[in-house]
Amino acid sequence: MYLPEYRMTGWEPFSGLRALQREMDSLLDGYSHRSRSDFAVNVWSNGEKAVVSAELPGCDAADIEISTLKDFLTITGKVKQEETIKDAVCHRAERSCGEFSRTIRLPFEVEQDKAKASYSQGVLTVELARAEASKPQKIKIESA
């Protein structure tokens, strides 16, 4: 049972929770699983284009697919399971493998036929031109 600890500085009401958290972290160490759809993404834009970069370590460029629809970008692919030593016991498995998919909403609609993509050192970069129809239009004011 966890009880709050008394210290020289006085009573600390959350010390019991911290002790429980340390014990749970220790118990679960080595069993964490991260979904492949949790990969990190950055999105930048200006008035003319958006640039999306995504960390996809362990992927082959041939195993990545990119599609756009209006103001959405979808990245799908797979990471192959790494080769292991025959009859080996796994002591820690933190690197995930398998299929993944993530859809990101962009700040505006894009021209699908003008998209460019590159993949280098585990980072996918997609450059997307803004659709003409989504650009702000000036309205001429007529005076009476």
Strand content: 25-35%
- Uncertain segments: 30-34
Could you tell me the radius of gyration in angstroms?
24 Å
Q: According to CATH, what is the topology of the largest domain? A: Immunoglobulin-like
Under the CATH scheme, which architecture of the largest domain would be assigned? Sandwich
Shape: flat
Number of DSSP strand runs: 9
> How would you state the average pLDDT, rounded?
84
The helicity comes to under 10%
Provide the number of structural domains. Answer: 2
SSE succession = EEHEEEEEEE
First-residue to last-residue Cα separation: 82 Å
What's the SSE blueprint?
Blueprint: E1 6-7, E2 10-11, H1 15-28, E3 41-45, E4 49-55, E5 64-69, E6 72-79, E7 98-105, E8 116-120, E9 123-129
Antiparallel strand pairs: 1-2, 3-4, 4-9, 5-6, 6-7, 8-9
Could you give a quick summary of the protein structure above?
This protein is mainly β. It has 2 domains: 1-31; 36-132, Immunoglobulin-like (Sandwich), CATH 2.60.40.790.
Kindly list the characteristics that best describe this protein.
mainly beta, Immunoglobulin-like, 3-stranded antiparallel β-sheet, 144 residues, 4-stranded antiparallel β-sheet, 35% strand, 2 domains
What does this structure look like?
There is one protein chain. The chain folds into 2 domains: 31 residues; 97 residues, Sandwich (Immunoglobulin-like). It has 144 residues and is mostly beta strands. It is built from 1 helix and 9 strands; from the N terminus they run ββαβββββββ. Strand 5 and strand 6 form a beta hairpin. The strands form 3 sheets. It has a 4-stranded antiparallel beta sheet with strand order 3-4-9-8, with no helix packed on it. Strands 5-6-7 form a 3-stranded antiparallel beta sheet, with no helix packed on it. It has a two-stranded antiparallel sheet with strand order 1-2.
